């Protein structure tokens, strides 16, 4: 089995487990994430943090984003422009969010495009070494590469539920490991202090 096939099998298995969580468990888990990381993330006021609006059975990090805003974070959301490109548009209080394609919701084209300092990244699976499996399209990998090409090295924090952890993710050379993972049971650092 190739690495790509292994990742697809792990993705399908872990997303099925996430989908099987009750709505109540997902809500409680999402709220626990605020308790675990809302005050633990270390950043200066004005730091640009990218979150996401939940799709399917993802954790709902909107309460966490609201808390980070009260601490001075400047928020943005990823917007998928096409099959290859994500941009990060500023999320301003009172500004509408709209359907932005590929099942996502975010600020409209009038919003400023920002380069995040911290990315809260949805994922399918992760392991104890900080390797992750996304949804298979490579959007975040390409966005991270573009940011690095501009001299920007954002901190990467995976957002998942505990059921999405696996013993080992088959890592490939292009894969960018996470700096930390946030689940309903806690906030774990992998590489650097955030």
TrEMBL record:
<feature type="binding site">
    <location>
        <begin position="132"/>
        <end position="140"/>
    </location>
    <ligand>
        <name>ATP</name>
    </ligand>
</feature>
<protein>
    <recommendedName>
        <fullName>5-formyltetrahydrofolate cyclo-ligase</fullName>
        <ecNumber>6.3.3.2</ecNumber>
    </recommendedName>
</protein>
<dbReference type="GO" id="GO:0046872">
    <property type="term" value="F:metal ion binding"/>
</dbReference>
<dbReference type="InterPro" id="IPR002698">
    <property type="entry name" value="FTHF_cligase"/>
</dbReference>
<dbReference type="InterPro" id="IPR037171">
    <property type="entry name" value="NagB/RpiA_transferase-like"/>
</dbReference>
<keyword id="KW-0460">Magnesium</keyword>
<keyword id="KW-0436">Ligase</keyword>
<dbReference type="Pfam" id="PF01812">
    <property type="entry name" value="5-FTHF_cyc-lig"/>
</dbReference>
<feature type="binding site">
    <location>
        <position position="58"/>
    </location>
    <ligand>
        <name>substrate</name>
    </ligand>
</feature>
<feature type="binding site">
    <location>
        <begin position="7"/>
        <end position="11"/>
    </location>
    <ligand>
        <name>ATP</name>
    </ligand>
</feature>
<dbReference type="GO" id="GO:0035999">
    <property type="term" value="P:tetrahydrofolate interconversion"/>
</dbReference>
<dbReference type="GO" id="GO:0005524">
    <property type="term" value="F:ATP binding"/>
</dbReference>
<keyword id="KW-0547">Nucleotide-binding</keyword>
<dbReference type="GO" id="GO:0030272">
    <property type="term" value="F:5-formyltetrahydrofolate cyclo-ligase activity"/>
</dbReference>
<keyword id="KW-0479">Metal-binding</keyword>
<dbReference type="InterPro" id="IPR024185">
    <property type="entry name" value="FTHF_cligase-like_sf"/>
</dbReference>
<keyword id="KW-0067">ATP-binding</keyword>
<comment type="similarity">
    <text>Belongs to the 5-formyltetrahydrofolate cyclo-ligase family.</text>
</comment>
<dbReference type="GO" id="GO:0009396">
    <property type="term" value="P:folic acid-containing compound biosynthetic process"/>
</dbReference>
